[in-house]
Design a protein that fits this description.
single chain, mainly alpha, 69% helix, 0% strand, elongated, membrane, transmembrane, YrhK-like protein, transmembrane helix
Length: 232
Amino acid sequence: MSRRRPSTREPITRDVLVRRTGLTFVIGSALFALGVLLQLPPHWPAIIGGLSYAVGAVFFTTAGFMQIALAVRDLSIDKRARLPRGGWSGDLVAAVVQSFGTVLFNVNTIDYVLTLDSSARVQDVAVWVPDTVGSIAFLVSSGISLVPAVRALRHQHVPDRSDWIAWINMAGSVLFGISAVASFTFADGDPVSLAWTNAGTFFGAVCFLVAAWLFGYPSHRSELTDTREVAE
């Protein structure tokens, strides 16, 4: 009977996980912004932009779970041992709430593609509701992330950028929320405001892209640290 050789792979360092998280959020944000642009030409099928949203949401969700992994990694050994019943940090709570929102965006964007020719009522239930709840989750997560103690932990590798990252993310969440409200569809098939729907999504995505870049790509390599254990 053959024996497996022990793995020689080294664990992923915090700086690598930070970069991967930032890059994945950047890609997801870019695809959301692209989705808006792809829907502007009047003769282009709406499904083209819809598919860009759907793929972007997958990247958002992937990055969201990476953010959870980072938050868990930054906990002390004692707090990690008490999960999931205890030991939660504000950073971990924010990451989980954010990931809940990204999952709803997956539901929202997939349903959007599948219900393009459906009635306004179907679109409101299948698309608008998860979009709105997901946007609320992003707002809550961004609000938690503004707390100084949360930012100190999450942005420990870029303390000089922490304020910018937190507030740009909040701006993106507010814009996504405006987009969600504006996209409510009346019985005649018209949304509350197509202009605000597109503007909120596009500029919100740009905000998330900038914040993700600031988070994942410090100006100097030395700014990245591999602080695995954080004091309680």
